Amino acid sequence: MSYTNKPLIDDMVSLKVENISFLTTQDLNRVFRVYREIGDIYIPRCKYSRESRGYVFVRYYDERDAYDAIHYLNHTKLDGRMISVKMARYRTFDIPN
How many CA within 13 A on the CB side of residue 38? Predict the structure, then answer.
């Protein structure tokens, strides 16, 4: 998915999908939208080469849809690679005073 403006992600549930092929792009939308409406797909890329880093974040509007995606897609093959799908954990940063 592509957005001209940053999507409102505060109310979305984020999944981290690991072990993605460096060539995987459009298949992600097709595979994950089976479990309802996707709010956003973010593919982190290397700063210099612009290649995928091998993981993506998929955001759903509804938590139940995210759990369905985890249940059905975790440890399945996508583009010949066994993927891992789990809830994303956010890092917290201490801001110095």
Answer: 19
